């Protein structure tokens, strides 16, 4: 249980960091608009916004998965017996773990090559590309951890946390994520 609480804190911290990147997008865009009105140059703001958008998306993936907000096909699962549902959940999470593991490996390889080749950003802000790309790796590794953790949870005979999160939302009358 201590590990699960630690992982929950890690996923929450990444989600808060993603939210800060969304806030940074807002600040840079509003700041850039204000600067343009004052006749000032806004060079590089497009690069910063792009990097912040990517960081926000990748860092939020694990948290989003655990809340049950990823796209899942539950129509089939809801009509199955408990045993078949568990078996399909194990198969689905096993396949997802393999795909996300490959995704995380590819992200690490991609960013390593940027670092190894000393790739620099092509825009107005010349920084090593591996710096903004790091959020890609962190997000992919956190998603791998979250998916693999839920596979272990289901293999142990427990309910995945995303099911409980969805049921809690439905109990409150919140079906907004199901649209």
In short:
The chain has helices at residues 2-37, 45-59, 61-66, 74-78, 82-116, 130-155, 161-171.
Distance between the termini: 33 Å
Largest sheet data: none
Q: DSSP helix count?
A: 7
Q: Regions with pLDDT < 50 over 5+ consecutive residues?
A: none
N-to-C SSE string, H for helix and E for strand: HHHHHHH
Element layout with pairings:
Layout (H helix, E strand, L loop, with lengths): L1 H36 L7 H15 L1 H6 L7 H5 L3 H35 L13 H26 L5 H11 L8
Description:
There is one protein chain. By secondary structure, the chain is mainly alpha-helical. The chain has seven helices and no strands. It has one domain (2-178). The longest helix has 36 residues, at 2-37.
What attributes characterize this protein structure?
mainly alpha, 75% helix, 0% strand, 179 residues
């Amino acid at each position: 249980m201590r590990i699960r609480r630690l992982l929950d804190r890690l996923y929450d911290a990444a989600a808060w960091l993603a939210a800060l990147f969304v806030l940074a997008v807002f600040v840079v865009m509003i700041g850039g608009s204000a600067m343009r009105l004052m006749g000032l140059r806004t060079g590089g703001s497009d690069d910063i916004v792009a990097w912040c958008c990517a960081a926000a998306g990748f860092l939020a993936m694990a948290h989003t998965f655990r809340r049950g907000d990823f796209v899942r096909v539950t129509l089939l699962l809801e009509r199955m017996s408990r045993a078949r549902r568990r078996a399909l959940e194990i198969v689905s999470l096993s396949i997802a773990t393999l795909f996300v593991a490959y995704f995380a490996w590819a992200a690490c390889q991609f960013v390593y090559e940027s670092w190894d080749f000393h790739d620099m950003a092509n825009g107005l802000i010349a920084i090593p590309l591996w710096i903004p790309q790091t959020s890609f790796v962190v997000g992919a590794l956190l998603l791998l951890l979250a998916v693999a953790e839920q596979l272990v949870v289901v293999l142990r005979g427990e309910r995945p946390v995303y099911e409980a999160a969805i049921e809690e939302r439905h109990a409150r009358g919140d079906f907004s994520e199901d649209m």
